[in-house]
Automatic annotation (TrEMBL):
<keyword id="KW-0067">ATP-binding</keyword>
<keyword id="KW-0169">Cobalamin biosynthesis</keyword>
<feature type="domain" description="CobB/CobQ-like glutamine amidotransferase">
    <location>
        <begin position="252"/>
        <end position="435"/>
    </location>
</feature>
<comment type="similarity">
    <text>Belongs to the CobB/CbiA family.</text>
</comment>
<feature type="domain" description="CobQ/CobB/MinD/ParA nucleotide binding">
    <location>
        <begin position="14"/>
        <end position="197"/>
    </location>
</feature>
<keyword id="KW-0315">Glutamine amidotransferase</keyword>
<comment type="pathway">
    <text>Cofactor biosynthesis; adenosylcobalamin biosynthesis; cob(II)yrinate a,c-diamide from precorrin-2 (aerobic route): step 9/10.</text>
</comment>
<keyword id="KW-0436">Ligase</keyword>
<feature type="site" description="Increases nucleophilicity of active site Cys">
    <location>
        <position position="433"/>
    </location>
</feature>
<dbReference type="Pfam" id="PF01656">
    <property type="entry name" value="CbiA"/>
</dbReference>
<comment type="similarity">
    <text>Belongs to the CobB/CobQ family. CobQ subfamily.</text>
</comment>
<keyword id="KW-0460">Magnesium</keyword>
<dbReference type="Pfam" id="PF07685">
    <property type="entry name" value="GATase_3"/>
</dbReference>
<feature type="active site" description="Nucleophile">
    <location>
        <position position="334"/>
    </location>
</feature>
<protein>
    <recommendedName>
        <fullName>Hydrogenobyrinate a,c-diamide synthase</fullName>
        <ecNumber>6.3.5.9</ecNumber>
    </recommendedName>
</protein>
<keyword id="KW-0547">Nucleotide-binding</keyword>
<dbReference type="InterPro" id="IPR027417">
    <property type="entry name" value="P-loop_NTPase"/>
</dbReference>
Amino acid sequence: MWKRCGATALAKGLVIAAPRSGSGKTVVTLGLLAALRQRGTVVAPAKTGPDYIDPTYLSRAALRDAVNLDPWAMPAERLRELASLQATGADLLVVEGVMGLFDGAADNTGSTADLAAGLGLPVILAVDAERQSQSVAALIAGFARWRSDVRVAGVILNRVASTRHERMLAEAVAQTGLPLLGALPRDPDMALPERHLGLVLPGEIDGFDLFLSAAAQSVGDYVDLDALLRLASPTPEASEAGEPLPPLGQHIAIARDAAFAFLYPHLLDGWRAQGATLSFFSPLADEAPDASADAIFLPGGYPELHGPQLAAASRFKSGLAAARDRGALIYGECGGFMVLGEAIVDKTGAAYPMAGLLPVTTRIDRPKRVLGYRRLIQSGDLPWPGHLMGHEFHYSFARQTRLPPLFAATDARGEALPPMGAVIGRVMGSYAHVIDRA
């Protein structure tokens, strides 16, 4: 489908996983990417699952755009294609896992382990060693033996308290037969700030480059990078994956700034490959979408953190209204859906007027987390197949008048959910982030 440019050599690859969330997996991966890059290794980053935020960190560390590899929402052929494209011309493909190694969707599929098995890549297990010593061996051995199709090839210990602690841990790991690649000391400064949808975006963190340098220094000092590189396996060649989702239009104007930051690179690349023109604009800077665009895409992000700026963005809102009046397709996902509505009520209870193209008010002052994969059947004018795969993650909720929904939906288990979103003419949106065709 997509053609490679330049070098055709494929990087070897490996997966960085952990027994659970909160093990320091992201910091370890960032340190590895930055340390390897500083040695002259060309590293290609990827993230397991539907995460939007971690890929921005991985991209900063690698100085190369990250890609999402979603083993629940993408067919196996798409995963191999995207991994192969990402690995082209690099020395090492580094895939950061999601949650614990074997944690997946509610139907028990889509885990980091599933991705590693499907791509044939070895797993490096990043283990939080805080508050344990010899018991770490049982933990590691259990993960290494749980699935015969998943090869745990090495271990990196994190948050090690002292030299004595490291020695006890190393003796325990030796009993598993797996190589201990490194032991990173406990450092309270090696933590990233979080908010309601995950990590704070790196562009909003003062001193992020200093943090990244410190992570690279720690990994370079305490991890055997040569041994890690020797464990990598060839990335599989791409197979025919079928067509990606068609573009929303021939010229798609896409909102992109701190309020609209959640975009899947594989969608944009697929649209460009099919001949669509993409232009970008910033609602926070009160920019209107290009007047020649026949489709406008408002992706997800954090509009609830920018209520005053969006409420005052008169050129942006009048540009959306003009696009509606000329018959352009206007599509919003999650945060974009919120902005298409009449108002957003932030966590303080303050209401900010939005575009008013859909009779929807969204509130985050009484947060309730909604999270999970979705199977979607669309009923709007989206130029996509009827059956789609997507994901939902938000703390706001929508109040709307009775309108035709955009999607019928089930969860990952196939259990029916309430209809999602709203459609008025060619203006439509929902809380779902669409990932691929079913």
